[in-house]
Write a structure and sequence with these properties.
By secondary structure, the protein is of the alpha/beta class. Helices cover 48% and strands 13% of the residues. It is built from 48 helices and 28 strands. The strands form seven sheets. The protein has a seven-stranded parallel beta sheet, sandwiched between helices. It has a six-stranded parallel beta sheet with strand order 3-2-6-7-1-8, with helices on both faces. The longest helix is centred in the N-terminal third of the chain and has 35 residues. The termini are far apart.
Length: 1200
Amino acid sequence: MAEIRATPQQRAAAEDRGGALLVAAAAGSGKTAVLVQRILEQAAGSGKTKVLVDRLMGYLTDPTNPADLDDFLIITYTRAAASELRGKIAARIADALAVAPDDRHLQRQLTRVYLAQISTVHSFCQTVLRQYAAEADLPADFRVADEQQAAALRAQTLRDVLSELYAQLDDEPDFASMIDTLGYGRDDRRLLDLAERSYDVMRCKVDPAAWMADCLHAYALPEGIAAEQTLWGAYYIKARSDALASADAMLAQAEALCLREEALEKKCLPLLQKNRETVRTLMAETTWDGCVEAGLPSFGVMRMPKDAENAEQIQTLRNEAKQMLKIVQSYFYAPSEQVVEDLRKTVPALRGLLTLLRRFDERFTQEKRRRHLLDFSDLEHCMIGLLTKKGSGRPTEAAKSLAQSYREILIDEYQDSNAVQERIFQAVSRNGKNLFMVGDVKQSIYRFRLADPSIFLSKYDAYPPLGEQDPGEPRKLLLSQNFRSRPEILEAANDVFSLVMKKEAGELDYTQAEALVPGAQFPESPGPKVELHCLNYLVSSEENGDKTGAEAEFVAARIERLLREAFVTENGALRPAKPSDIVILMRSPGMIAGVYQAALQKRGIACDVGAGGDLMQTAEIEILFQLLQIIDNPHRDIPLAAAMASPVFAFSPEELALLRAQEQHADLYDCLCACREPDEKLRAFLSWLSRMRAESRRTPLPEFLNAVIQSSGLETVFSALPDGERRRGNLAAFASFVTAGTQAELRSLSDLVQLLWQIQQRGAGLPTQDAPARSDAVRIMTIHKSKGLEFPIVILADLARKMNMQDNASAVLTDEELLLGGNVVDLASRSYYHGLARRAIIDRKTAQTVSEEMRVLYVAMTRAKEQLIMTSCSAHYGSRLKKLLLRLSDPLGPWVSAAVRQPDEWILLAALCRTESGALFAECGPCVYSRVHQYPWLVTLQNVSPATPAARGTETEDTHAVRPLDRGQVLESVAFRYAHEAATRLPSKLTATQLKGRGLDLEAAEEAPAQPEPSRKPWRTPQFLQDRPLTGREKGSATHLFMQFVRYESCTTREGIRQELVRMQAEKFLTPRQAEAVDAEKILALFSSELGNRILHADSLRREFKFSILADAAAYDPAAVGEQVMLQGVVDCFWQEPDGIVILDFKTDYIHGDLQQKAARYAPQLRAYAQALSRIYQCPVKKTVLYFFSAGREVEIDPE
């Protein structure tokens, strides 16, 4: 590659003075180097660091007013980035000194480079707080807690606070309400997780106490308030307006298509115009109840003329507009009064959660202060407390003093900052006028770490371009020239993101100003540089197949060809590609990385999966942890057996079994000690264990850990195994963790073992050692880990994976603008549904997730220097392409981009706009928007079949010669009978409904975790499925759902039942088709009967009661005497009367023949219910009743 000189934009970024400057630096634009040049005059170099480096060097070599390096505060995102930047500054100063060796000013700067404030925001806070410890009311010897130790202390403190609140339950009604409504589950793990998540969010607020006060204020709902006057109602009124505007735009687009054909204009245009009038009428309504009453208007039936070219696309646009109206109407699920009442129902639980957070924060702070500890969040908040006055937020004297210390504050990766950090930057600046902020909001991919890209976006939208601002006012500068990638790759990225990145999806309009411009020169190289391979996965209905394995096989075969055919640039000339030039990027490799690794290894290609896992899950650290546990306490059987069986001591299972048999009632360690004739191996092990136990009591922890590793031979054993260098690195990383811990709270081996136990119990981990990439291997890496890196050849795989929306499943959700929202819980019916606040937050979080995923795709595509290969594997590819083609327009409607839930669809939309996508057009038909581009892609669509077992990384078993058995052995084997054969015929679990012959308990989705329903569906249900009548089973399920959630007191009149059906549709308990299937007359018949009257007047009535009990297996198989079986079931309804329990089970079966005979089939099921309830409540069951809706009759079953 030729030498790259500074562009005019880079020079402006390095030299411009006089006010805050926001540099929006695109991928590969050389932003950090400009920062350094800002502090030497000549611009040289290339790459991501150019902007920052250039700016710094400009200040240092200013001929009239040269600056000192320690006049600047430079904030980077990671310690590695800070170290890299410091090294680049030192190198540039050394280069300048080589030209002017007598320059005493530069000589001084070279000595100051390692004293300069170049650090992460947390390191900066730590430095300042030590300097101003007294003013910040901190102990001068405070320590920054290790992340894992802080997490362990936090978890223990939270449990202590919860225990105290449990003990005061009668005096804490809000906390009790929180437990009842949010703490569901078998234990309090969900509650702990919810509290920790909410605490993290709270601590990311500039003023956590004010945030909690804002939450409570938002829920202070006076009598008579309308839903649209609430924070969340106002959000939905605006969302409705935006959605209706989108629907109107869809219909306008359909109108334009009609005007292209006379037949369509005559037949369809009038109805479309009428539809637009309907939408505009809806847009005029701005009250909540008005929106509810407006309902879902009819669009009429559109009949298309035959053979009209645009008919299908017009119909699709119209249907999309109708679907948009359905989504809009779903916002307004109930009248204003009920919506507000639902919000009020959530208040006690949310107030209880905030009380828990406040008490926990106070206690956690006390515990940290008692230990002289600060965590990362404390560093930021203590810094704010030091720099700003409480209440007014004005700068303190300390802040003013610091502000005068810094000539300029330069912030790298500004798009990943949050509100707390932004407050710190403003406080130490001179009213924000000496801030130099560099970042690329299109690469903001750390929202899961609570980064807030809206901070960058707000300034990006507000600041005028450089040269248009008033003197001293803030301005922005865009660096779009890319010095990393070939023009072919940049054109591909521009095509994709100019089409799909909008305010509604990506939070930024990708215009010509944001487009990447080629800035590097490459030698000519044959073949396409961008490839898109669409893999149509063929799998029959009888098999599940292996989609990941199929895609991995394809990728491995493509890499095999690359290594034979591809060339990359090195020192301006082409050379053959080698494995280390290639990286496979995926959103979440996780377990599937092994699949790709196996597919590559099958072809003899080395693969480096890299670090990023959990240190505690590596074999060497697992065994080391076992050794530490038995040294701390050898009477732990499982760690002791595991340690002895490990490669370190190599006891065989037979040896362990013989040793364990020494003493029947003793633990394993006592058995070892009791061995009368120990062999040499056992004597050596016991001697080592005794020495280590003695050593642990007198040796400091780091030295003791080294003694354990060396004396046991652990390092020697694992160094000899494959990938030994990485394993040694993991041991070194663990030793570093322990050494750091001894500077805080770790004082003994017991402390270390306890901490490691807590880490494991919380599902946390320790990061593995980052080993150098292998020079002979293809790398597999997450997209997040690739950020800031570049690779000659990038393979972007697993693009068809659906986006992860699990963050929306929490019982309570938080948002920057919409604050807090939880489920509405009906304790009487033991049911819950989303309230207005939670619905709004889910919709907003979903939109944010889609935007983040788009930015992740941008990062991935811009890592490639020479070649970008994208693969997507999915079933029914032709159907997917047809749907995308029908939604395609120029420009693309923002609603299309926002509705995507698989990242490959953004790429496919762009591919359909290219004439070289003939393989796709063969499946979905031609695209009127396709155009010839300067650099064509290679686009393929090919069928792939389920992968063979080898693709999954499984090894086929070696075949060994089998010795023939003699006749006696054969007869003995055939005649063998297992003594407990009856027990093998019984399942470990038995459901009550299986007792009447059904194979599955359809009434109990027992303990199945509920999948969160997406807030909106990207595609409508096919018409033929909408029109299909419900089956008998589906109708029965609808009736059961109605009986589960209905308010019984409303079922005594037809009007009451009708209103309940309406309510249950609005609250999403029933779909409209299910509601139609509920026979109101049959429901009324039940509640008009004597049985119905007993239901209405029953005390402590329970519905859908799940149970699990251990029952005598002999009751179900006489041969299974002495065995037990788990009996599970769900009782539809029961209540207690003074003389016993009454059980009622609803049946929707169609009755033909004898009713008593039909009822007899259910007798075992009802008796199982009776057995369970009598044992659970220690109360007899006096009556079990079946009620058949189809016959309108009840049948009593003997409970015995």
